[in-house]
Amino acid sequence: MSSKQARSVARLAAVQALYQMEVSGAGVEAVIREFSEHRFDRLMEGEDSPAMAAADEMFFADLVRGVVEHQRDIDGSVVKRLAAGWRLERLMPLFAPSFGRVLLN
Fold this sequence. Notes:
The chain is elongated. It has one domain (3-103). The protein is an all-alpha fold. α1 packs antiparallel against α6 (97-103). The protein has 6 helices and no strands.
């Protein structure tokens, strides 16, 4: 797998990890550890299922930590681009805030 593909997989996993943190209240290090130990490089459910695509695990961890660390700055950047009269809270039912934070990176 190419480095570009591994980073794409890492971005998708980061979205999933941030969503998991959002809904479960789990901490960043716990979620990174859980992905590293139980999701990356593991077979998917079922005997005939292929292995999950390889991810750039270091990039994944840096991305998740960075989003958490810079959450206020990222939210501020999103708010600046909202239509007049819109607030960040209005978007929350549409998608978890984590998705936008990851996609901006």
